[in-house]
Structure formats: C-alpha cells, structure tokens
Amino acid sequence: MKTAIKIAWRFLTHAKGQSILIAIGIAVGVSVQVFIGSLIAGLQAELVDTAIGRNTQITVTAKTRGGVIKGYQALVEQIEQSQPEALHVSPVVDASGFLRGSDGSDFPILLRGFEMERSDGIYRISGALVSGQLPGKGEVLVGKDLALEAGIVDTVTLATPRGSTREAKVSGVFDLGAAALNGRWVISNLELAQSLFSYKDQVSSIEMQVKDPFRADIVAQSLSAHLPEELKAVDWKSQNEQLLSGLNGQSISSLMIQVFVLFSVVLAIASVLAISVLQKSKQLGILKAIGISNRNASLVFLTEGFLLGVAGAVLGVALGLGLAFAFTKFALNPDGTPVIALFIDQGFVVISAAIAVLSATLASLIPARRSARLDPMEVIRNG
Amino acid sequence: MDNIISLRNINKIYGTEVKTQVLFDISLDIAEQSFSSIIGASGSGKSTLLNIISTLDRPTSGSVRIAGVDTTDMSRADLARLRNQSIGFVFQFHYLLPEFTALENVLMPARIRDGRVTRETMDRARELMKLMGIEKVANNNAGRMSGGQQQRTSIARALINSPKLILADEPTGNLDSESTEVVYDILRDINERFRTTFLIITHDRRIAQKADRIIEIKDGRIHLDLANRLSPAMAGQSA
C-alpha cells in the first residue's frame, strides 16, 4: 500500500508538467461546475425570493367565498405548535374598498389589516418603507404609486362598498417593488380593518411562510388535516404551476450542465491516465518482474487518479470561487449591485469537489485494470 | 546438492488457431549454487524457457519447481511473491525505474516485500552498492549513469532480497567488452561469496564459456548440456 503510494507520487512528480496539466484540466471542470452551479443557484434563489419569498406561502381561508375565520388566536397558536416548519403565522383581514383622493375621486384599494410584527416577517414592510414608519393605532400605510396618484398628504378617507367611511392618519409610504401592490394596497393594523369592515373578532385568512418554501405543499397537507371542517389551506405551489415548472426546468438544465461537465472531466482523466499506463508500461513490466502484485500495480494508478483528483478539486474550487467573486465584482447593474447575486452553497462546493475526486479515482480504474493485464515479459523483451 | 530449478516435461505451444510449439518436452535440473548458462540462436526458444523458469509465463504442460516449490497451481499473487523473494532479475537493457535514484531502485524489491525500508535493508543496499563500486552514484537518477553503472545497479537490485536464484537475460548484451568483463567478474564473485545460483542466457560465447555448465537450446529442445569444467557445484550433475 505504502509502496504503491510512494511509486504513484514519484511517477506524478517526475512528470511534473504532465501532472500539472491534468490537474488543471480537472480544475477547469470543477471550477465550471462550481461557478455555473452557484450562478444558477443564485438565479433561482433570487427568483424564488422575488416570486414567493416576500409573500404568503400557505394561506388558510374559509372554504366558502367570503367566509371568515372565528377564534383565530387559538388557531394561530395551534398552527404554530403543530407545524414547526411554519414561519410568521399571521392573521390577516383583507377587504376591498375605496380611498378618497384629494380631488374627491375614489380609488379602488385592498385594505390589508395586519398583526404588524407577524406580517412584517412575511412582507418585510419595514424594509420597504420609502418614508414614515409602520402604522400604529388608527393609522395606515399606503403604496408609493397610490400616494402619487391620489395626492395623499397626511390623512386619507377610507370607504367600504356599503358606504361607511373612516378617516385615517397616513404613517408612511411603502414600495414593495411591484406596481400592482404599490397602486392598490393600503396597510393598517388588524383592529382598523376589523372595525371598518365589521369583522368583529374575526379574520379573513391566516398567512404563513415555510422554512423550505418547496415543502409548502407538504406542510399545507399536514396542516389541512388538523383544520376545522370549514377551513382550507392553500399553498403557493398549487397556485403557481408555471413558476414551479420554470424553476424545475432551471434545476434540470443546471443538473444537465453539471452532468456533462462531470462526464467530460471523467473522460479526460481516464484517457490521460490510460496513456500514462502505456508510457509507464516499461516501469510496470520491471515492477511486475521484481514481484509487485497486480493489486499494488493497480493501486499505483488509483493513487495517481486520487491525487490528481484532489489537486484538481482544490485548484478548481479556488478557481470557481474566484470566478464567482470576480463576476459579482465586475458584472454590475447601473446602480452598482451585482447582475446576479451568486449563491455559494458550501455543501454544493464540497460535493462538487468530492465528485471530482471520486470520478478521478474511478476513471483511473480503467488504466488500473489495464495494468493488471500487462505482460511484463512482453515489455522487457521488446524494450 | 538440491536443485533450485527442476523442470519436468515442459511443452509450450503458442496460438489457438495456428499452433506453434516452441518448447518440446524439456526436462532440466539446475543445482543450487551453480553458475550455468543457456545459449541458443534467436528463435531457439531460450527466452521462452527463461520466461517459464522465471514464472512470468506458464508452460502448456509440464511442471516447474522453484526452490522445491511446485508453481503449477500457484496464484498470480503467490507467483509475484515468489519472484520477489526467491528470484533476482538482471535484464539486457538494465531496466531501472527512471523516476527513482540508483539507491531507491536497489531498495525497490525490499520495499515491495516489506512495504517499507528497514535500517538493515538500507545497510545491505549500501553494502551491495559498495561491492558493485557504484556507491558514488547512489543518489543519481537512473538516467544519469553509464550503461555499466546501470547494469551494476540492477545487479544490486537483484541481490537485495538475498534470492537463491538470479536469472540474467543477456546481462552484458548492451555493454562494451571492458564493461562485459567487469560485470561477469561481479556475477562470478557473487556466486562464490553469497552462494547464489546463476542462470545466464546469452548469445555471447565468451561469457557462456566461463560458466560451469553450458546448455544449448536448439529448435525448442536441449541440444547440448555439458559441464564446462570440474567444480564442486557440478559434482552431482551428469552432463
């Protein structure tokens, strides 16, 4: 064992140029793997974050249209206890109404009554404030587009379709990054929405996020089992099939790229090592004549493959991370933020490196098997 | 005196479709501590015979006993061990490992045997290299030595595991006459000093004539087998 390793090491260091070249070949493969992987993971993380990261991922509502949830405090508590994967479980009152502009015209709005600390976890409103602060008692937060269109100053008048109205102080303006929200949403605390729309001690839905958004359907399913008869849980996945298939497509294409890169790396290593068996056939013939076992002769090549794999993997990870770093530094939006924020998953990097080492070792099995079949006398006789 | 090599009815046939018989029913005994040579024209079958004696090749029929052990049913791993411990090889083209220094080459069979180099082995290697007069090039890479130095290194390598038998295939085939003389003297010296059996394949009649026993192979058969001169090793052998 030790002898085989020593011989392998000497073979590698004796043909330094060749060894370095092979290691670089492996490294390029690994770095492409790491870079493309991080890039696609970053893209996907960004897409997931914009599409569903700042949104409810599971929503509990009544099965009947316009139905309400009674005794929501107990239900929220129950969900929090029974579903450890659920995050930011928030009762919400949603109601369509109007906002009277400064010139007297009505703008359609969606009044969203939040339990502010909880819903802030989902929508990250506090981070999206353009001015002012989160609404307190009797206050509302309006979207940037609505504020502009309606000429909102300090106070607004909210109206329900049934005609009741209420004055509210504007605590601030938000920008959630989507015109549909900025032009229609008015955010208040739960009490204001409840009293204006006569919800009393009820809410229209309970929203939540899930630790792993892609498990939303599973969590929703287990949640449904515990819900009262008249309620249902809807997850984002069942409502966004197109987005989901897009994400899946991206994952699969990323996997395909990685498989092909891996494939070419394995082929390159196998062919180079196969040639090196031919180059070393004289040495192998001598070693076999002086009594090296086939097992140890094979081990020489396995060790070579392993060492080249390790060197290539280390170099490749460094190169890949360097590339990724350069990409975030030089491929910038006009505002100076990276075009794509890379997502560097340590686990993924480690797995990529491990796969490179493993495939280099496996690739060297081919020449190792060849070395076992080599007839020493053939070599020794023919020079 | 026991026989270190004992061949019985060795036949060797190459090919499956077109069969070519290279060796015909050869039986041969080589006594321990003897110094014998095998001669023959190229194509006579002498190299095939050496391959079979060295266990690198198997006969089509017949038995090969090396140091009293029948090799017929031995596994390849066992044969590798037998070669490593009981047989030393000296080849025509020296065949050192170019990636290693002269000393490392000499140590290689011991490293294969033990998995490491003990102090005793190291001392023995240095002693052997001194005996061969190559202690000055011990740390040279194999490629940076003269042909004679390389061949002496390969002799030291053949001796490191103290084998009972050394097989030499045209050991001087590649050397000038002066180096040939030196190498021959060394082989003869080892034979006397360590009681190592030598079997030398050569087409060089000058070398062959210095052996105790000359065996000539012709057309795959033993054509001639004669004692060259009276020596203690030859006492029990018939010519």
Account of the 3D structure:
The complex is a heterodimer of chains A (383) and B (239). Helices cover 58% and strands 19% of the residues of chain A. With 383 residues, chain A is an alpha+beta fold. Chain A folds into two domains: 2-51 and 244-382, no CATH class; 68-203, no CATH class. Chain A is elongated and about 105 Å long. In chain A, 39% of the residues are buried. The mean pLDDT of chain A is 85. Chain B is an alpha/beta fold and 239 residues long. Chain B has one domain (3-234): Rossmann fold (3-Layer(aba) Sandwich), CATH 3.40.50. Chain B has seven helices and ten strands. In chain B, the strands form two sheets. In chain B, strands 6-7-8-3-9-10 form a six-stranded mixed sheet, sandwiched between helices. The longest helix of chain B is centred in the C-terminal third of the chain and has 18 residues, at 177-194. The relative contact order of chain B is 0.19. Residues 230-239 of chain B have low confidence and may be disordered. The interface between A and B is medium-sized, with 28 and 31 residues.
Distance separating the two termini of chain B: 15 Å
- Kindly report the average pLDDT value of chain B: 85
Low-confidence parts of chain A, pLDDT < 50 over ≥5 residues? none
Number of distinct beta strands of chain B = 10
Report the helical percentage of chain A. 55-70%
Computed Rg of chain A: 32 Å
> Please, what is the CATH homologous superfamily of chain B?
P-loop containing nucleotide triphosphate hydrolases
Q: Describe the oligomeric state of these chains in a short phrase.
A: heterodimer
List the helices and strands and how they pair.
The complex is a heterodimer of chains A (383) and B (239).
Chain A: H1 2-14, H2 16-53, E1 58-62, E2 69-70, H3 72-82, E3 86-100, E4 106-114, H4 116-123, E5 129-132, E6 139-143, H5 144-150, E7 155-159, E8 165-174, H6 179-182, E9 185-189, H7 190-196, E10 202-203, E11 205-210, H8 216-226, E12 231-235, H9 236-239, H10 241-279, H11 281-289, H12 294-330, H13 346-363, H14 365-373, H15 376-382
Parallel strand pairs in A: 4-9, 6-8
Antiparallel strand pairs in A: 1-11, 1-12, 2-10, 3-4, 3-7, 3-11, 5-8, 6-9, 7-8
Helix pairs in contact in A: 1-12, 2-10, 2-12, 2-13, 10-11, 10-13, 10-14, 11-15, 12-13, 12-14
Chain B: E1 3-14, E2 20-31, E3 35-39, H1 46-53, E4 61-66, E5 69-70, H2 76-86, E6 87-90, H3 102-114, H4 119-131, H5 147-159, E7 165-169, H6 177-194, E8 197-201, H7 205-208, E9 213-218, E10 221-227
